[in-house]
Every structure is written in structure tokens, then in C-alpha cells.
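Good morning C.,

I know you're traveling, so I'll keep this short. The sequence:
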Amino acid sequence: MKTQRKVLLLILVALLFFIAGCSKEKQNGTETPTPIPTEAEDATPDSTPAPTPTSTDEKPSRIEEWLENTKDADKVILTHEQIKEYNKKLVEKSQHLIDILDADVVINGSTVRNYVNGSYIPGLPKYDKSGEITNQDVEEIKKNFNADAIPALVQAKYGIIVYRADLKSLPTRLGFYDSPTDEYYDRIQETELPVGMPVLVLHESLDKDFLYIQTYFYRGWVRSDAVAICESSDAWLEFADLKEFITITATLLPVGEKGAKADMGCTFPLVKENNDSYTIKLPERNNDGKLVITETEISKEDAVKGYLPYTKGNYITQALKFVGTPYGWGGLNEGHDCSGFLVSVFRTFGFKFPRNTSQQSGVIGEEVINLEGLSKDDIIEKVSEIEHPACLFKKGHVILYLGVLDGVPYIVHSPSGGQYVTEEPLENVISNLVNATIVK
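The C-alpha cells, ready to paste straight into the viewer:
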């Protein structure tokens, strides 16, 4: 009898361990996200809980497998000087990009007024978490444009983004969702703005809660407390025209002591290089809204001096670090949508690409392969022959091509709301492909 009891006890213990292990099962290919601490939420306005950021230099085994099986993984595709020239050509080619160093800082007031009054307003019905958006809500938002206060000549102010902020088409804290249950697609969310990004401030809302700004790839409204105003152009140029600097290679990294988080591809002026870390200049905003600089350290596991060398191996590594990251429309919820994912990966090499899929397709690459109307087999054959980093475009979606592993062509992408950045075979996403845009 005692023996039977011992056996039963052992079985029960084993079952308990099994159940505990199952509770950590991955969902949609990733572990259940861990909420960030409450104090970090409070320190970063408009922030939504996301997976706890960690160092991403420790490569998962899948990355190692790719690096071991990728031909010329360490061969430099373009030098940093060549990428600078590449960016200049993109500005000439794309109406959605500007060279912010050459942008006008004195602008005709009617031009700014047209920008502001042309702010995109989604058609109703739309819903916020508090209820349905009304026509009266829309009229109040229009009043907040404060367009009548725009002078005949606008003197732009120099600003730096101090926390990962949301750029919106309208100056409001309301969300514009398609249904009361939609939690993924705020139709006025345009893009995330990374810490350290230089901007030009063109206007202020009536309630003073929002600024209308110009970035190198977008115009729109951002919370006023996300922008620190520079008291001189020299202070702005430290971030806009980088000399000695570092680039973040982690996916989302806490920086400083105020809860800010730096996206992959964020750049910061370098103060000094230490044995295991870099001391950087971190932009912060004082109570008067002015730029102040705090020095902080970044581990060398999460950053690189200058930009990363543009190699196939680094491209694969940076892209696969995102696997398991939540989708975020326009960068909402500290996630990445498909085109924002692309921008972040290529930003680590110094590329400055347009933000949206429609603006990127057929534009960001020197070689474009037409895939429209081809059979599944023909697409697989054509794509499998591509040796350089490439972006595969559908209407409204972009996918990063990785290469061929064990005879199978693979991609990685950020699919849609409620899903996660995923690596999978090309054949899973092959329908409706329009082109392959090769970045070389």
C-alpha cells in the first residue's frame, strides 16, 4: 500500500511539472508578452504595455543557422559612403522624403496652413475606447488645428524627439477605430517617431497639447511633451548631422532613467567608448520644453559605433531579432507594422527609406523584379535566385526576403493586428506578390 501511495505521489508531482511547463507555451510563435513596469508607462506618455525589452545580441539558434548557411554573409554590399549617396538619390526619386538638413526653416504661412487644414480626417463612423466619435468631436478637432494663428511667414523651430512618440494625422488623444471592438487599427496613427529623431516644428495646436512637425519622411501632429526645443541650430545638428555616434541594434531598448525606449536604428551622439559600453548623449525635455542633455551608458551588446556594415549576414540577423515582436499599426503599442519593420532594419545600416508600403514599393531598390501575374513556381524560381537583401511587395504589405535554407526560400514579416513578426517559407505568402525590390 505504501509503495502504491509513493507511486501515486510521484505521478502527481510529474503532472504538476508538466502543467507548469505547458503554461509557458508559445502563442502565435512567441511567448506571452510581459507587461512593462507601471512607472515606465507613466514616464512615457501614449505608451502601451509591450514585451519587456532585453538585449538582443544573444543570437537565437535560427540566426546562427542562417549565418552558417549564407554565402558571403560578411561581404559588404554597400559602404556607408555609398549608402549616403543612395539616400540622396532616394530624396530625388521620392516625393515623400526630404533632406532635413536642407529643408527651409522659413516657410510661407499659406503653405503651412494648407498642410494643417489638409490633415487627414477618417470618415465616420469611427470609435474611441470611450465611445463613438461624433461630428461635434470632429469639429472640435478642426478648431484645435489653430490654423488662423499661422503667421504670414513661419519660422520653424528645431526639435528633438525625447521618447518613442506617436505621429498622428489629427491633434487629439481620441482614437479613430473602425468598430467598438477594434484595438489594432487607429486610422489617425501615422508612424512611430524614435528617440533622438530631429524634427522641424511648424505650428502648435490651440490647446498647446500638440505640435505640427516635419520629419525626413512624414508631417503630422505629435504630443508637445515628446519634443524638446533646441535653443540653437548647433544643438539640433548634434542629432541631425551626426559625426561620432552609435546606432541601437536591439529591437527596443530602455535608455536613461525616465522610461524612454530606443528602437532598432536609433542613433545618439557618442561621448566616449568604454570597455563594455558607450557613453552617449540622450535628449530630454525640461519643464520649459527645452532640450537638455543627459549622459547615459549603452551596452555594446545593444549598439554599434557608427552604423552596422551592410552585409547579408547583418541584414538577416537584424531582421530575425524581431521574430515574436507584436504587430503595431503605425508603430502603435510599441510594435511594428510591415513597413515600419522594414524601415527599422535598414536604418541600422544608415538607409533613410519612406515610411509606408505604397511609398517604398519599386522605389527603395536599384533593381525591381516584376512578379505580378506569375505562377507560384515561377515566383519561387525568380525569388530564390536573389542573393542580396530584398523586399517583396504586395498591395498594402511588404515582406523581407531572407534567402534559401535547406532548399526552401524563407521570408520574415509583420503580418497584421494581433499577430507577431514571423519567419516562414515564401510559399506561405506567395499570393498577390507584385514585385521584388532589391536593395544593393
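Safe travels,
E.
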